[in-house]
């Protein structure tokens, strides 16, 4: 009869979860470990056992919460994107879009943000269609979340730009990505504010 392998005493999940905080700590440790591997070695290097070793948890914990590698990779990019770019609620659509673009600019200008984007590109191009599909789903979810800014605008009595929201978001975001990642031109607050004003005027 095989003996069960005991939990490591020093691991974050060594004791059964009795408080809400432990589950959150384990999740964050795993995502941080997976993020480290993705940024430094790429999607192909990510395995459940390697993540568990870096996170200080048992591999069974990682398998239980993320049954396949695809879900884990998608969760890493989703949590990173949400932590670096939230959906603002500033009191007007113009200001919401401006603040949203400011956060995207800060993300793309940061070392972690650049690594995340490169990791997402590498993961999508890795040849693993399940991983690529998962990453595309993350971006699609982010666009859907961003549409909340337009829903709030309607509740405030502003124009909601129904049927034009995706086009507005893409038209605003694409130049920021291009300037920062390709041409390395400056993206300042004046540039962002002017773009928001121009695009909303064109779409109205």
TrEMBL record:
InterPro entries (alphabetical): Homeodomain-like_sf, HTH-type_TetR-like_transc_reg, HTH_TetR, Tet_transcr_reg_TetR-rel_C_sf, TetR_C
Pfam families: TetR_C_11, TetR_N
Domain HTH tetR-type: 24-84
Keywords tagged on the record: DNA-binding, Transcription, Transcription regulation
DNA-binding stretch(es), residue numbering of this chain: 47-66
Identification of the protein by name: TetR/AcrR family transcriptional regulator C-terminal ligand-binding domain-containing protein
Taxonomic lineage: Bacteria, Pseudomonadati, Pseudomonadota, Gammaproteobacteria, Enterobacterales
